[in-house]
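Good morning,

Attaching, inline, the C-alpha cells for the sequence recovery test we're adding to the shared suite. The designed sequence is right after.
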C-alpha cells in the first residue's frame, strides 16, 4: 500500500515538472516585459548645450597653523579662522552658505640623520570651509579681505563658478538634445534602408559642470598685494537624452 502511494506521488511530481517546462519553453516574456522587444528599434543619444553666465562663486578656503604643541596650533588656527569667518559674513556671505569641509590635526616630522629616525617637530591644524558667494562681483574683494585677515595662515585652495538655478535653461537644452537625437536616428535609418517610427523610450540626464580656475594659494604677503582680478567667464548647462525609435519596415 505504501509503495503504491510513493509511486503515485512520484508520478504527480514528474507531471508537474513537465507542465512547468511546457509553460516556459519558447517563452520570451517575463511578467509584462518582452525581452525581445528591448533589442528592437534605433537607439541614440542626443546632447543639448547652452552657454550661460555663472551667478555663483564657491571658494574653498581656510587656515593652516603650525606650532610646537597641539594646543598652541589650535589656538592660533582658531583665532585666525574666527577672523576669516567674520570677514566672510561682513562681506555679505550668508552663514548658511559657509560649510566646514575639512579639519585635521597632524604631526609634522622630519628625518634626523644622527638618530636615523623621524622626529616630531610640531603640529599642524588645518581648517577648511566652502563659501558660496552670491554677489559674484565681490569675489575678488572677498579673497583679498580673507587673505588680509588670515595673513600667512591663509589657504585658498580653489574657486568654482556655477549657476544657482539652471532650470530656466532646461527647455532650450532639452529641445536641442531631442533635435540632436532625431538627426542621428534619421541618418542611421537612412543608412540602414528603413523608415523611422515614433520614439518608444526617452530618458534624460542633466549636467552642469562648474568652472575651476587655477587655485589661489596665499602663503606670504611681505608687501601689499594689488586687488585680485576674478573673471567668471561662461559655463554650460548640458542635457543628454537617450531615445529609442521604432523601425517601421
Amino acid at each position: 500500500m505504501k509503495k503504491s502511494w510513493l509511486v503515485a506521488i512520484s508520478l504527480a511530481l514528474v507531471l508537474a515538472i513537465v507542465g512547468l517546462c511546457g509553460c516556459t519553453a519558447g517563452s520570451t516574456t517575463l511578467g509584462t516585459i518582452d525581452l525581445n522587444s528591448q533589442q528592437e528599434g534605433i537607439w541614440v543619444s542626443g546632447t543639448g548645450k547652452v552657454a550661460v553666465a555663472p551667478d555663483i562663486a564657491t571658494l574653498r578656503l581656510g587656515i593652516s597653523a603650525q606650532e610646537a604643541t597641539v594646543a598652541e596650533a589650535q589656538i592660533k588656527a582658531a583665532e585666525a579662522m574666527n577672523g576669516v569667518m567674520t570677514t566672510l559674513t561682513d562681506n555679505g556671505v550668508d552663514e548658511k552658505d559657509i560649510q566646514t569641509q575639512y579639519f585635521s590635526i597632524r604631526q609634522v616630522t622630519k628625518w634626523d640623520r644622527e638618530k636615523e629616525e623621524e622626529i616630531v617637530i610640531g603640529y599642524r591644524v588645518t581648517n577648511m570651509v566652502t563659501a558660496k558667494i552670491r554677489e559674484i562681483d565681490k569675489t575678488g574683494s572677498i579673497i583679498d579681505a580673507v587673505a588680509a585677515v588670515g595673513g600667512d595662515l591663509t589657504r585658498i585652495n580653489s574657486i568654482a563658478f556655477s549657476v544657482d538655478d539652471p532650470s530656466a535653461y532646461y527647455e532650450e537644452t532639452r529641445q536641442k538634445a531631442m533635435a540632436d537625437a532625431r538627426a542621428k536616428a534619421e541618418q542611421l535609418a537612412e543608412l540602414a534602408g528603413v523608415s523611422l517610427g515614433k520614439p518608444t523610450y526617452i530618458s534624460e540626464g542633466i549636467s552642469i559642470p562648474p568652472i575651476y580656475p587655477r587655485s589661489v594659494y596665499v602663503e606670504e604677503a611681505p608687501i601689499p598685494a594689488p586687488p585680485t582680478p576674478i573673471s567668471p567667464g561662461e559655463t554650460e548647462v548640458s542635457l543628454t537624452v537617450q531615445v529609442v525609435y521604432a523601425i517601421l519596415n
